[in-house]
Amino acid sequence: MQLKQLGLSLVSLMAGTGFAWGNGFHSTLSDAASNGMATAGITRMEAATTATDLPAAMPFLEKGVHALGGIARVSSEFEFTNESTGAKAETETPTILGPHLFGVWGNEKFAFGISQTFPFNSGVKWPEDWSGKQVLTELELTIGNTSPVVAFRMGNFGIAAGMDLYDGKITLKKTASYGFDVPVELSGTGKAMGYNASFFYNGDNFAFGVAHHSKFVLDGKGTADFDSSGAPNAPTQAFVDGLLPYGDIDVDLQLPAVTRFGISYKDKKRNPDVFIELTATKTDWSHFENLTVDFESNGSSSVIAKDWQDTVGYQLGATFVVSRSSENTVKVRVGAALDPSPIPEETLDPLTPDTGRTTYAAGLGIVHGDLIWDISYLNVTTKKASSTYSALSGDYEGGAQSIATSFGYHW
Which CATH architecture has domain 2-410? Predict the structure, then answer.
C-alpha cells in the first residue's frame, strides 16, 4: 500500500495542475490577449501568438518579423471538507509566474514560427497537518514547450505543421506513515516530443481554424528521498529504512491529444472594429487510463488507475476597437468559458482537484505603430464536487485568478 501511494504521488506530481485555464492539468493560455478572451480567439491574426494558437494563420500576418513576449501571474485557492470528520483545509498557494515568448517570420506565402510557453506551470501548498498530508503537502511544477512550426498559404487557405518539445521539472512533498510521520520529497525531470498540425480559412466575414496537438508520452525520471529521523528508536528507523524505496523512480506519463476549433465573425467592410469567436477545445483525456511507476531500488512497480474521460470545453471571446487614431488603436476584450472536468469522483485528488470550471475574463489592448501591448484579467470559479477517492474522500471547491501582460513588435 505504501508503494502504491508513493507511486500515485509521483504520477500526480508528473501531471501537475495548470488550473487557471483548460481542464485537468492542461492549459490553453497563449498571451495576455488570449487571457482577456478566456483563451478564445485562435483565428484573430493579431500578433506572433499565431505561432502557438493557430500556426496555419501565420502567413496572413503582415510581411516581416513579429515578436511578442510577456508573463502571466496566477494565484489559486482550494478548500477541502473531509467526508468522515467534517474538518476543512485550505491551500496556501504560492503565486505562479508563467512566461510566454513567440516569434514569426514570413510573407504572404510562407511563414516560420517558434514559441516558448509553459502550459504546465503551477504550485499548491496544503497545511502540514491536514487530513490529506499522506497524499500531498506541497507541489511545484514547471513544464515548458518549445514549438517550431512552418506554414504555407494558398489564397484564403493556410496549413501548418510543427513539433512540440516538452521539458519538465517537478517537486512534490508529502508525509508517509509507518507508525510515525516520514516526510517524503519526490523530484524529477521529464522530456517528450509530439507534433502539431493546423488548418485555416480566412473568408470575407468569417474565418475558421483547427489546431491539433498530438498525444505523447512524457518519459519521467525522478528520485525519492525520505526522512525517517522521527522514528522512536534506532531499530525502528533501520527497519523502516529497509522498506522505503530510496533512489531512482521511472514513470511514463500518457498525455492527451488536444484539438481546438475556432470560428469567428468580423465584418471587414462595414464594421471591422468588432471580432467575435467561438472556440471549442476537445481534450482526449481517455488516453490517460493508468500509470505504471517503477521503483529501481527494489524492482517493484505500481499501477495506478486514473480512468479520465474525454472533454469538450467552450470559449467565447470578443474584441472591440473603441478608439482609433493615426497613432494609436485601443481595443477592449471580453470572454467567457465553460470547461467540464475529466476526472471521475473516484480518482479526484488534491493534486488535480478539477471539478469543472466557469471562466470570465476582460482585457485591454493598445497598438502604437508597430508596438503592441495587452493586459488582462481572468477569473475561474469551480462548482463544489465530491470525491470518493479511497485515500481521501470529501468535497472540493475553489477558484483561480490570472493577470497577464504582453508586449509585441513588428519589423
Answer: Beta Barrel (2.40)
